[in-house]
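Notebook entry, structure prediction.
Reason for the run: the old model in the group folder had no record of what sequence produced it. Starting over properly, with the input documented here first.
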Amino acid sequence: MNSSDKQKIIEIMKKNCLHAYLATCDGDQPRVRPVSPIVEDNLSVWVTTFNTSRKVKQIQQNPKICLAFAEQPRGDKAATIIGQAEIIPDMEEKRRIWKLATFDLSQYFPDGPESKEYCLLKININKIEWRDSWTGGQKIYEPSQE
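New structure, fully documented this time:
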């Protein structure tokens, strides 16, 4: 994939991080919920949540996820990550990601990144299905192909 397409994917995800939906597996039933991922320029993707959330329990049982970003209001631009979520216990990484959040995490975790309830999920990407317009067609990005 050329770097221009990779930058387009990152831009779609960053601009639509407040319009993202995470699907996990609950046994044989998919579960979807809105999330606010943190996307880095190197295509690292993170989700913050509560340690006691259902999504954490589901990921512990089955780490396979889909994470979809859709431009509002019509979804012209969209990116869907197919991969796995990994629970990251490393305090240094939790602090680093905390600082990158574009929203106020302290409203959920008043004790900061050291909060016992603060959980960091790393999204490991197998592939990204994406489009930059309805008419442009769907494209596929696979990090393993680089």
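Summary: The helical segments are 3-15, 54-61, 91-100.
The old model has been moved to the deprecated folder.
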